[in-house]
Design goal:
Layout (H helix, E strand, L loop, with lengths): L1 E6 L12 H15 L6 E7 L14 E2 L7 H12 L3 E5 L4 H5 L8 E5 L16 H10 L4 E4 L2 H5 L12 E3 L11 H6 L5 E5 L8 H7 L7 E5 L5 H10 L6 E5 L3 H10 L2 E4 L8 H8 L4 E4 H11 L4 E4 L4 H12 L5 H11 L2 H14 L1
Parallel strand pairs: 1-2, 1-4, 2-3, 4-5, 5-6, 6-7, 8-9, 8-11, 9-10, 11-12, 12-13
Helix pairs in contact: 1-14, 7-12
Length: 359
């Protein structure tokens, strides 16, 4: 099937922004290009966060709007010039989703909803603009993709009831290889790590407050965001500097080094669509404490216990979850092997390909 996808791309692939959507998009593209037997021929990508003309890794052409061109005109031109069988639209709550209504003779269109958060009133300064975009796009889709059931189930809260088929497929995970000795020998007992943006819904403050009564544990927080100063002030005011460190933004290599030294991963978000970081932590042998529906989804996929699913996101609940997780004996190699095999790029790309081709 000849496919054109629309969405942001990862920095390694020329993107100027980062995030789970870009990482998933680029990894799926790279895997399909490397494995043509999966049945997807990537004709090109409408890469929304780069000015490059092609993917520096795969060589796949990047398409974009011409100067003065509307998104509808651009997409119509790109379709006419490349004759795709299918359009895969990452994030439907965009101008590209809105443009579908103005394009005659559309090929098959698959909408990929990575999260509904982009349509929230507190997220969208022009609310309900992005929600309107999504509602318009829904009527022109042949099928919908989600990473989780709980995200798909949120549609009804927005008054969206699509008639098209819906598939639930988790994201692919790309990991490096860790030497067995390094993987098990460097662990620091009772060392918790957090990786994520320091935003309100990520609930890093809840984790920091939980640390007040975990006297024998230390915490490394990796990430930056609007709550960084508030977190730093709280740590100083409560004399937690010797046990909690704020590392700010760190490279992927540094993240991996810290993960391999840690004992438990905790990201007690009040909301996640999926969050690749839980998979990345598990791939480093870390049991995970986090957003309940996502941890449950991961557990169901890998078929073994992998951590603690939070239902209550208070400091007291987070503290109790950490205590329970650290009281168990974890087979870190098994965690790694399970998550890297079940979420391997080629297996997940095949699931996406089968859904796209057969719906």
């Amino acid at each position: 099937m000849r496919l054109i996808s629309v969405g942001s791309v990862e920095s390694e692939h020329g993107g100027k922004t980062t995030g789970g959507v870009a990482r998933t998009h680029s990894l799926l593209t790279k895997t399909w290009v490397s494995n043509p037997e999966l049945g997807i021929e990537v004709v090109g990508v409408v890469a929304t966060n780069t000015k490059l003309s092609k993917d520096p890794v795969t060589g796949v052409p990047y398409f974009s709007k011409n100067e003065g061109e509307s998104q509808a005109s651009a997409l119509s031109r790109i379709i006419d010039e490349n004759n795709p069988d299918c359009i895969l639209l990452h994030h439907i709550a965009t101008g590209w989703g809105w443009s579908l209504q103005n394009i005659p003779n559309l090929p098959k269109v698959i909408g990929f909803v990575h999260s509904w958060r982009i349509t929230w009133e507190e997220y969208d300064s022009n609310f309900p603009k992005k929600l309107d975009f999504a509602k318009m796009a829904i009527g022109h889709l042949d099928s919908l993709l989600y990473h989780t059931n709980h995200c798909a189930n949120e549609m009804s809260a927005f008054g969206i009831f699509p008639s098209c088929p819906i598939s639930i497929i988790p994201p692919p995970l790309e990991t490096g290889y860790f030497d067995e000795e390094d993987f098990t020998s460097q662990r620091e007992s009772f060392h918790i790590v957090y990786l994520g943006n320091l935003l309100e819904h990520k609930n890093a403050m809840g984790l920091v407050k939980a640390m007040k009564n975990l006297d024998d544990m230390k915490l490394t927080i990796m990430g930056s965001g609007e709550l960084e100063k508030e977190l730093r002030d709280y740590i100083i005011e409560n004399e937690l500097e010797n046990r909690i460190s704020l590392s700010g933004h760190v490279s992927d290599e540094e993240v991996s080094e810290i993960f391999l030294k840690a004992d438990i991963f905790c990201a007690p978000s009040r909301y996640e669509q999926f969050s690749l970081v839980y998979l990345e932590a598990l791939a480093h042998g870390l049991p995970v404490v986090g957003y309940g529906p996502t941890i449950d989804a991961i557990r169901n996929e890998i078929g073994i216990e992998c951590g603690f699913s939070l239902e209550d996101y208070s400091p007291e609940s987070i503290q109790g979850a950490i205590k329970e997780v650290r009281s168990r004996k974890w087979d870190r190699v098994l965690l790694r092997d399970k998550v890297t095999s079940v979420f391997s790029p080629i297996l997940i790309a095949k699931r996406f390909a089968d859904s796209i081709i057969h719906q």
